[in-house]
Amino acid sequence: MPRTPVLWRGSLFPLAAPALALFSWLWVNSQLATEDRYWAAGSATATSAAFLLGPLTAALAAREVGRVRDASAVFGRPVRTPARVVVDAVAPATAAGLVGVLAAYLTASWHLLGVPGGPDGRFVLLAVLVVVAHTAVGAAFGWWSRPLIAIPSCFILLYCWMALPIGVEPMWLRHLTGFTDWGLAVYLEVDPAGVWAPILVNGGVLVAFALALACSAPDRSPRSTATGAVLCAAVLVPALAGGISTARHLGPDPVVLRAAPDECFDGPVTLCVYPEDLDRVEEIRAGVDLAVAELTSRGFPAPTRAIHGVGADDEETWTFTMNAFSSPESLASSIVAAQVPSMPEGCGGMGTYLTYYLALDWLTTAEDEFDDPELNEHWAALHRLPEEDQLAWFHGARDAVAACGSHLDALGPEVS
């Protein structure tokens, strides 16, 4: 039976490690090039590289354990325990996967040089668990089936597990895999359930694998196999149930609004931004000034504060959103559009939809012709009102949309 150094020399680690590192570099570069310079987003993107790192390390592990099986057939039963044999065999594959994780985080760190904060430890733990748990599954495939079957089958199955749930129902299924490609904006933060659910599932897989190894006997006796299977089930079922329970309330992306920023700058309008935006304060100020000029010309009073984030605007406070590519002009447009509140989740009814789009179009466009004939009728009725009455209607429409109601009756019975 080959000793550990021989297993390393005959492994694919020298080829696999650079290849996985290159993939991580390409993936994280392509994702972070379009995202905010924000460590929560950088950590999630770096961990999301595991969607391919995991299946690839599983295939490598199946190949390495298959080599051990073949060597056992030629040289006889090894002196070492089955657990030691398998651990030694999968060590090169595991190391290659962890090199890929390290490359992903180094690439994210390069993108985020100078940004306050650092990698989120929860995401680092999740990335390591995904890679190691997938390696364990690959080792199981390699131990119980021939490499010709084990290598492609474990790669295909695990890749499908990582990639397909994001497009199917129920939504909580996508949050069990460990794929974290959420594109976090700087005004959002991660719901902890979105990280702990896949940690539970992948951690359960790893613990179950360790118990199976601990129970394995050199002769693969039925008793040891049955004991290992029972222990695996005793760990996997609670881990999966815990993951589902943790994630079942989550929507498509497990995010929540971040607390309002406390970095504020005095001026005609007090400007509050997140620490990640401190190098763009003058650019943001220019966008806020453009928005103030446009809205005050429409009869809106000037605010006293402008805050980066998402919230309910009022006459004293405006909120705005931006990204890495926002210009003062696009920032001003987002501030203007934010004067119309979003419809509450689950809000229905044609009256609310028409009120929302009519208010938004009145505020942000000069168009007088739309594809929807009903919207055109309301638009014409609104513009027959005096300008001060149009502004009064808009304020009433804001309140109606926020309450999931309609404000079309204020335009007259002939169009309501």
TrEMBL record:
Residues 272-404 form the DUF7224 domain. It holds the Pfam family DUF7224. Keywords: Membrane, Transmembrane, Transmembrane helix. The keyword Transcription does not apply. The chain crosses the membrane at residues 7-27, 39-62, 83-108, 123-144, 156-173, 193-214, 226-244. This is DUF7224 domain-containing protein. It comes from Actinoalloteichus caeruleus DSM 43889.
